[in-house]
Amino acid sequence: MKRLLAAASTAVALSVVMLSTGSAFAADLPAAPAPMPAYKTPAVVAPTYSWTGLYLNAGGGYGIWAADTTTKSPATGACVLCVVERQGGRGYVATAGGGFDYQIGGLNFGGWNPQILVGLQADYDFSHIQGTIEDQTPLFTGNITNTGTWAVGARVGLIVFPQMLAYTNGGYTDAHFGRANMVFSGSGAGTGFSTPSFSQGGWFLGGGTETTLAPLLPNGWFLRSEYRYSYYGTKNLTDTCPGASLSATCSGLVNPQNTITFHPVVETLTTSLIYKFNWQ
Q1: pTM of this prediction?
Q2: In the chain, what are the domain boundaries?
């Protein structure tokens, strides 16, 4: 029994010594380093685009015009050729202009959230769209050319993608046609008669698309393709011999001859480079 008690006492003493020694040793050890934070991939923020701002455009294309014509007496106003005939022309167009657009967001149509664009625009077409005009009674014909057109209007469009727009436009337009020097239809010889140059106002409707040219060109450069239909009022063009008195004859014919009613419609298809000043 004494041996058991001695052994137990020794075991207890050793345990106390070991515990105290272990605590002191643990206290001398450096603290464990804090765990490394988990690595997070930086969030990628998608670029935002705003179509609001000013722009300039320049380009070119092709155009045609068609005109309903009749002839009437300049003295009485009665029709001389009463059947409507349609004359026409074709040629090339260079265009330049600019405008301001405003982007409208925050709309909701049954879960559809479109980005809408509204804007104002103005442009001028330098054109050479040439065709024929006729005064059938004396058998005259001549070339008449649409030499220029200006237009102001508005447009509204849908931003299909952040960098692509589809739009329609419309407004007021004014076209200039040059003088037609008349020749005899059979021989082509000059007559001395001509129709006057003139400008005529009307309206236009059109539409097209714009899309970015990046990365081919720096940010801000876009490509526009547009179709335009322009409708003008009727103009009365009296076939006269300039410099001759109204009582005199020109090429053996009474001066003036007939008045041609000219009612043109012009259609153009153009492609333009656009530079948007605010584009990021």
Answers
A1: 0.80
A2: 53-276
Q: Residue 150's closest CA among 210, 196, 97, 197? A: 97
DSSP codes joined into one string, 28-55: HSPPPPPPPPPP-PPPPPPP-----EEE
Q: Which CATH class is domain 53-276?
A: mainly beta
Q: How far is CA 142 from CA 92, 130, 138, in A?
A: 19, 10, 12
Instruction: Name the token pair of 38.
Output: 């988990």
Helices (H), the chain: 2-28
Cα separation values, 140 from 29, 71, 77, 237, Å: 116, 12, 19, 13
pLDDT over 90 at 170, yes or no: yes
99 C-beta neighbours (distance < 10 Å), count: 20
Q: Return d(Cα 277, Cα 280) in angstroms, integer.
A: 9
67-103 pLDDT tens trace: 999 999 998 999 999 999 999 999 999 999 999 999 9
* pLDDT band with cut points at 50, 70 and 90 for residue 242: confident
- Whole-number Å distance between alpha carbons of 90 and 94: 14
**Residue 196 DSSP code:** P
Residue 194: name the closest of 176, 212, 178 by CA: 178
